[in-house]
Amino acid sequence: xxxxxxxxxxxxxxxxxxxxxxxxxxxxxxxxxxxxxxxxxxxxxxxxxxxxxxxxxxxxxxxxxxxxxxxxxxxxxxxxxxxxxxxxxxxxxxxxxxxxxxxxxxxxxxxxxxxxxxxxxxxxxxxxxxxxxxxxxxxxxxxxxxxxxxxxxxxxxxxxxxxxxxxxxxxxxx
Length: 174
Known about the structure:
Layout lengths: L2 H34 L14 H17 L3 H4 L5 H10 L16 H12 L2 H10 L8 H9 L4 H9 L15
Helix pairs in contact: 1-2, 5-7, 5-8, 6-8
């Protein structure tokens, strides 16, 4: 049950309980006025005040609200496979990973740049933007990265950054 539905249900049951309570209090007030002699007693013949109604109404409101299923139970996935399928069905193909295109260590920069070298779109972006070349082969890209030049690929990866894409790299260029 959605949170809004749960809130509406709570409000309606409390409203009904308050109406019952207010009617009972009005009756008590009118009974006092009868004792003062302001109102004819015949207006209230056959009406009785039942305090149990008040407690039943309040109790019923709490029972109905507590018996309603909570939102977290309705959408809770208990297995990692189900959570992954829900994530993938919503369009997130990252595998649940978070990719950092600004690694701190040199080894992290090399690893991230090597991932970029395996992707055609990243190699094309790096060749055009950083190297002013028409194309870059995977072999040449790997040799440049292993030689210590990682920044050209990391710049391309920052341009193509896509948190919900596989490997964090957009499959299309902008």
